[in-house]
Amino acid sequence: MAIVGAISIARGEGVRKPASPIYGVNVPDGYRKWELIAPALEHEPLNELRAVVGNPTAIAAYRAKTLPFPDGTVLVKLAWKHIQSPEFESALVPGAATTVQVMVKDSKKFAASGGWGFGRFIDGRPVDKAQHETCFACHEARVKARDYVFTRLAP
Asked: What separation in angstroms does the CA of 83 have from each of 29, 33, 41, 59, 88?
């Protein structure tokens, strides 16, 4: 893919997709059909339900317990505000969608950020550069030993 400003162009397709500043990462086609890696509940201040899915390369690496993750690994985190279920009072269910966050492993292209490129999107559009500048620092401070990945495969 060629990167033009904050838009990537898929070679041969002429399709323009919004891309994250700094990294040029976009939301991958078909990610909603990928396998679930794990769900999560985020408390204050975000109050979100989250689900992380992975492409086949990611799933194979998780199952083989491969670290570092191989190039070509793509992880996508979907997040929603959580609300009480109207049908079952003790259940929390997804409410309004908040973000889609993407991590792409390419050890050469993203060498300065541990081999990972990051993208954070709201309503399909990347958030600003300032927010993307915080991605790697947060991962580096907390999960460097796990190849900068927070999510563990759910049993």
From this structure: 28, 24, 12, 29, 11
pLDDT, one tens digit per residue, over 125-147 is 999 999 999 999 999 999 999 99
* Amino acid occupying residue 33: K
Q: What is the 3-state secondary structure (H, E, C) of the chain?
A: CEEECCEEECCCCCCEEECCCCCCCCCCCCHHHCEEEEEEEECCCCCEEEEEEECHHHHHHHHHCCCCCCCCCEEEEEEEEEEECCCCCCCEEEEEEEEEEEEEECCCCCHHHCCEEEEEEECCEECCHHHHCCHHHHHHHHHHHHCCCCCCCCC
Output phi, psi for 70, to 5 deg.
Answer: -75, 155
- Predicted model pTM: 0.89
Question: What is the token pair recorded at 101?
Answer: 């966050």
Neighbours of 43 (CB within 10 A): 8
